[in-house]
Amino acid sequence: MGFRVIKTAIATLIAIIVADLAGVEGALSAGLLAILGVDVTRKRSIATVTSRFFASVLGLLLAFGLFYIFGFHIWVLVVYILIAFPLITRAHFKEGIVTSSVVVFRVFGGEELSAHVMLTQIELLVIGLGAAMVVNLAYMPKAEEKLIEIRRQVDGLFSVIFSHLAQSLRDPYHLWDGKEIIEAGQRVDEGLTSAKRALENQLISASDAWSVYFYMRKEQLGRIESMLELVSFVYQRMPQGQITALLFDRLSQDVLTEEYTGQTELMLAELEKEFRRMELPATREEFEIRSAILQLCRELAYYLNIAKKDKAPASLKSTGKEKGQVAGGR
Q: For 162-177, how does the pLDDT look when each residue is reduced to its tens digit (9 = 90+)?
């Protein structure tokens, strides 16, 4: 049973009890409105409840006018739907269409038009939707631990990928199915979804550090895919390939750390200087392979620049740092 179901049950119970104690007719309707008001994040809850309330008030005013002019007939409900739904949508209260329909159909079932009926429906709206908002604002599951776990999974997958890249540079016949690339993409997308939800639950001092981290990893994953394509052109063992493999060995370890150390970047700079001092290729095959390795190093430089640009604070610990911030890694 999901936590949202528990929240819905609590909100429904609160709404019915409050409506009953307040002596509002149709206390069960307040429970139904509470069910419609529960949402997955605090910000969405506020937006949803606001939309549902104003959509319902707008629908009530329109329905009262139609019922007053044409009476309580089934075909009048059809007219209401044809007019109210586009009107509510144009007023940017689309999420409140169902809630407004529940309220209007309740008025239709009572076949009575009066200030008391209007007030009763508004009271039910306030109690039902209010109970849902209170429950939503009171508590939301903390996503920090889940986000940290996803980050560790992503970093671990990146580490495995870099290890395979290093092995492929040393041994062009190294076999690898590349499943970690797919898994990393899935975990990054999962992280982005969780980070967005966590951000919507922060009403005060919202931090988008997690979103920045997962967007960084998504961009880096695109660079890794380009690297894989370039490695496929290294079909012979070359001294340059052996040296470049050391970079990916280092990166497979650095990607697991919580901060950007710059060690791989320094090694890359030294390697590029060493490449310039080497003699030119003697054969076409050597030229093609060394060109692929050189381009691979450039892709690696782009990858590292992304980490430098978007890296977040170095530690996940809350001591001396804002709680909830995430390490950027490499």
A: 999 999 888 888 888 8
pTM: 0.66
- Contact assessment for residue 246 and residue 165, using Cβ atoms and an 8 Å cutoff: no
Mean pLDDT of the chain: 82
Separation of alpha carbons 150 and 156, rounded Å: 10
CA separation, residue 81 to residues 11, 40, 88, 99, 305 (Å): 29, 28, 10, 13, 55
pLDDT for residue 2: 65
In this structure, which amino acid lies at residue 22? A
Rounded Cα–Cα distance for residues 279 and 286 (Å): 11
CA distances (Å), 315 to each of 7, 214, 261, 319, in order?
34, 16, 13, 9
CA distance 308 to 304: 6
Sign of CA dihedral 8, 14, 19, 23: positive
Tokens of 209: 């550090």
Give me the helices (H) in the chain, please: 3-21, 27-37, 42-70, 74-90, 97-110, 115-138, 144-170, 179-200, 209-231, 239-254, 263-277, 284-310
How many CA atoms within 13 Å lie on the side-chain side of 1?
5
- The residue with tokens 């190093």 is 297
Give the chain's length. 330
SS3 114: coil
Q: By C-alpha distance, which of 56, 118, 134 is closest to 93? A: 56
Report residue 323's pLDDT band, with 50, 70 and 90 as the boundaries: very low
Among 107, 22, 131, 8, smallest CA distance to 57 is for 107
174 and 168 in contact (C-beta within 8 Å)?
Answer: yes
Q: Cα–Cα distance between 67 and 82 in angstroms, integer?
A: 15
Q: Is 71 exposed, middle or buried (0-12, 13-18, 19+ CB in 10 A)?
A: exposed
Q: How far apart are the first and last CA of the chain?
A: 38
Give the rounded distance of the alpha carbon of 173 from its chain centre: 39
User: What are the tokens at 94?
Assistant: 């689309």
pLDDT digits (tens, 9 = 90+) for 102-122: 899 988 888 888 888 899 989
Assigned token pair, 33:
């409105």
